């Protein structure tokens, strides 16, 4: 394996370990906070006083920084799919620390993610050696990538201005599509910024070039938009459905954008490209299986009187008299006419 790719691989694995464990720390903090006050799901902020929640935040920041640096040393087609390893870390830690049972199919999903990631690493392309941000700019303004960028902007406008207001609440692909498509541009911009910072620290100042600041503005704009629509997707749909779909779409568009801009697959054999695609499909399958075995969180009860009020059914006898009965009672000779929850 190339030394540069090895550094990127190690950083990506470290990033996944920190990000995966951060979910567990934050969940433990949220559980403790809900015992002493209102939960975060109903507007409580007691978790801000919990050290475990802050440990989770710090580990997530460290993980994201490691992921940021990983893009500097390795191509996006190697780093991005390895994000699935964070799912394995969180699932395994949740099994031992949160007592969230990892089913046998979930173990199979973890195994598939590991096997697929190994295949991707073994057949990943070599990272290009870039000496200035101007070289990255030349790659960004080549006709093929400009066409991709224009297509992304056009599709984004249609999804945001037409589809989201009409179908966003019912079609899961709208919100996830927006944050996945724009996420590919986020990764390209972040990679450019990371390389510029690396070169600057090595003594070649890249901050004097206007291209560096353009990449920075694009990255900030894309990140804000991406997080906004990802939060909308998580708030509207089940997390167990959002996560695998988002991972699949985001990774696919990122690999496609990186292949166009940085020509990652240039010089690779057909067998290597096919092996990497098979590895990605294997990781995707493992992610879907792992999420499908997750137990959904219990629904939040917003009606405070529901747990206290009995379920009552009204019955009419053959002689015309009305009677009512508890839900647990049994009166086979009665005919049900109305239930209390009919009016809810």
From TrEMBL:
The keyword Ion transport applies. Belongs to the NIPA (TC 2.A.7) family. It is found in: Cell membrane; Early endosome. GO terms for cellular component: early endosome; plasma membrane. One of its GO terms (molecular function) is magnesium ion transmembrane transporter activity. Acts as a Mg(2+) transporter. Can also transport other divalent cations such as Fe(2+), Sr(2+), Ba(2+), Mn(2+) and Co(2+) but to a much less extent than Mg(2+). It comes from Pyrus ussuriensis x Pyrus communis. It comes from the Eukaryota. The chain crosses the membrane at residues 6-25, 52-73, 79-98, 105-125, 145-165, 172-197, 209-229, 241-262. This is Probable magnesium transporter. InterPro entries: EmrE-like, Mg_trans_NIPA. Keywords: Cell membrane, Endosome, Ion transport, Magnesium, Membrane, Transmembrane, Transmembrane helix, Transport. It is a multi-pass membrane protein. The keyword Lipid biosynthesis does not apply. Homodimer.
């Amino acid at each position: 394996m190339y030394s540069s790719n090895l550094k990127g691989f190690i950083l990506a694995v470290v990033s996944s370990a920190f990000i995966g464990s951060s979910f567990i720390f934050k969940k433990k903090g949220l559980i403790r906070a809900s015992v002493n006050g209102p939960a975060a799901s109903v507007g409580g902020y007691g978790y801000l006083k919990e050290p475990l929640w802050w440990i989770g935040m710090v580990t997530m920041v460290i993980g994201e920084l490691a992921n940021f640096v990983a893009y500097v040393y390795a191509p996006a087609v190697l780093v991005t799919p390895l994000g699935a390893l964070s799912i394995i870390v969180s699932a395994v830690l949740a099994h031992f620390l949160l007592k969230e049972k990892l089913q046998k199919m979930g173990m199979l999903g973890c195994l598939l993610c590991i096997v697929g990631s190994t295949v991707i690493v073994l057949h990943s392309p070599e990272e290009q050696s870039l000496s200035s941000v101007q070289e990255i700019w030349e790659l960004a303004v080549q006709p093929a990538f400009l066409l991709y960028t224009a297509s992304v902007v056009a599709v984004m406008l249609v999804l945001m201005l037409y589809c989201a207001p009409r179908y966003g609440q019912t079609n899961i692909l709208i919100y996830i599509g927006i944050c996945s498509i724009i996420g590919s541009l986020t990764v390209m911009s972040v990679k450019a910024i990371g390389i510029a910072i690396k070169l600057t620290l090595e003594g070649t100042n890249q901050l004097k070039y206007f291209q560096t600041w353009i990449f920075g503005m694009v990255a900030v704009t894309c990140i804000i938009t991406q997080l906004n629509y990802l939060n909308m997707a998580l708030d509207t749909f089940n997390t167990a459905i959002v996560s695998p779909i988002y991972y699949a779409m985001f990774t696919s568009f990122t690999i496609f954008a990186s292949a166009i801009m940085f020509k990652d697959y240039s010089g690779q054999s057909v067998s290597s490209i096919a092996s990497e695609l098979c590895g990605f499909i294997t990781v995707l399958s493992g992610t879907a299986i792992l999420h499908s075995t997750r137990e959904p969180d219990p629904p939040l009860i917003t009606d405070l009187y529901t747990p206290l009020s009995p379920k009552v059914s009204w019955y009419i006898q053959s002689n015309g008299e009305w009677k009512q009965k508890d839900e647990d009672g049994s009166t086979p000779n009665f005919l049900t006419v109305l239930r209390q929850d009919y009016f809810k």
